[in-house]
What does this fold into?
Amino acid sequence: MKSRYLLGNEAIAHGCLEASVGFVTGYPGTPSSEIIDTLRRYNERWYHIEWSVNEKVALEEALAAAWCGLSSLVTMKHVGLNVAADPLMTAAYTGVHGGFVILCADDPFAHSSQNEQDSRRYAAFAKIPCLDPGSVQEAHDLVKEAFLVSEEFSLPVMFRPTTRICHSKSDVVLELPSPSTRTSEFNRDPTQYVVIPAHTRQLHKKLNEKQKKIARWLVERGYNRFELRATGEKKKAVISGGISTAYVQEVIGDTLSHAIITAYPIDEAWLAHFVAGHDEVFVVEELEPVIEEIVRQVADSTTIIYGKKTGHVPYEGELTSARVASLLQGAGFEAKTFPSVAQTLALPNRPPILCAGCPHRAAMFSMKSVFKNAIFPSDIGCYTLGIQLGAVDTTICMGASITVASGISLSGEKRDVVCTIGDGTFLHTGVQGLLNAVYNGANIVVVILDNRVTAMTGHQPNPLTGLTATDDVSPRVSLEEICRGCGASFVETVSPNDMAQFRAVLQEAKARSGVRVIIAKQACVISEKQARIKRPTYTISKEHCIGCKVCVKFGCPAIEVAVGGLCTITSLCSGCGLCMQICPSAAIRREGKE
Amino acid sequence: MSFDVFIAGIGGQGTILLSNIIGEACVIEGRSVRGAETHGMAQRGGSVECQVRIDQEFGAHIAPGEADLMISFDLLETARHSHYMKKEGVIVTNNEYVLPTSVFVQDLPDPGRELLLSACTTKTVLSIDAKTLAEQAGTILTQNVVLLGAASRFIPLQESSLREAVARKVPEKSKEMNLSAFDLGQRATEN
It folds into this structure.
């Protein structure tokens, strides 16, 4: 047993190796992506591992492998579970044979997400156990337990780390990986695996019968536990779940009892006993009042309960140790005091921005210049940053650019509707939207930003990359053929970095009607760097620059305004040459060229 | 009580590697450590911060007013996060700063070096020319190790552990270059 300094997701991945995981699927999504990225790079791999095309596909595959007796893992971010919700709800009915862990990473504060949904609600909805770790070490230890819980009750188990577990680091004590010795075998049993009404009614009953036993078992295993410390006249206690437990432990006063919840469903008798021993109870958890609701349900009227419902804890965002301390003090609970300071200087923000040389900037710039009054539905990926260019009017969830565009068009809006979607997102859930748009006669332009990789989450391969998660060569998929297969008659592929050509294609699309697809094909500039592709960079000639700042307004991070008001190109230049193409005074030249 | 190190910079400058080196040095000494960092959407060329808490067993967040040491790659980011510092803390910062693209696109004013330095009110503020020192060591990419060397005497870890952690965490072929970057940084803050 040795200690290493690891990212939460790396520690979780290692826990899965120790638990003899036999089958791994998932779809990238911050903060969950590094789990599969770690497992797919493990050299002595004994398991099948893949990046699936979406979460529904991933969950169904992993479920089937668990039916065949393997320990299976599927990973996704919280909103990915919405995509996979259909199989999730019924997977609880069918149950599993091998352990099946559904890892769903939540993102309080929406650091990298479109919402702050709390997946513990999904676990309760599906009636499956949920494990919610409070530290990186616990995440490592508990993911192994998740496979055990799953096999004990023949149910899928949700494992729910949050961003501050996934992307925190800690010294972690590890054990050795343990290769799986299981072989896959499907045992035919229609009463379990074919959910026709007659079978599903029975399965539902069985699922409900398991619930109390699970709650009891989770307490017996010590996942939910408490420390009784309250003394004096008024006995006070704190109850916390997930990462909040670490914050509470850092700041809690010595005279307060502390109950720690890491597993759901919570045993009501156990919780009632703890609550009854105290006069005042403060519940600390991020997002939804999942624990608090059960505490209120089991408490008698003499215990005062503080939490979200009394306005003592926020429903939104994430907590920190300092925040928890101030919340506790707000209800008269003893906690460490932190200094009260804030930044008062007004400094220019430094938001994330599309890279120097990013082809999305080029595509969106041309779209805006050709379709001046259009509506621009967009999607989820790096190109959502195109909001800074005024080229993103809507973003709701994966794959929703084409469907939102169709809805706007079919509702009768008169302006042009030009939507953008990345290649990975198109393959995730965009194809159905295109099929529907053609079928139902939408009048839209679809620009597929094809950079051949799932860039934002860390350059994971997708079917267009030509490589699998394990770097094996996969058959190349043709975007053109998919789009034509969906019935689109106008399908053109062109590089957005060739601005004249790209604009010509946009003009041609503008002159037509129906569903017009433009595939803006240009490799991600980071992928090019990783492949060591180097291009000559550009400079601005001082004699020719007229200071019009057209290049500066383009928003490339490599272009700055120097002293004296003239524009200059920094060492960030990737050599894409886009600024040269938009400069009205021909002041931008390739290095070494006069 | 933990010793809290706040690392500030811009996405792509090597802040995460720097925090990994400090974390590794803690593991070498058998000390507990917690770290928090920025990934994903928040990373692309934006402000990034890594927090490392030496001897901490619980949360990874440093509260404002609680950091013992700041290591910063950019003077503007130093100022932005200066409220995280304890009054008696130490700031080791690069003396240069990069203006965000938004300043140029939106024609915002340059805050100016003096204003940025005025935000650094800790007892000890050391600003070094990390870029030049890194180039002296061999490449701008060693800026993070230059800054680590410069801050090393304020970190409650053995210098030998930090050097060993550098050697373990950087690519084998750039080991010597990084160790000399450590030396250059260390010398820059002597006296």
Observations:
- Chain A has a mean pLDDT of 96.
- The longest helix of chain A spans residues 197-220.
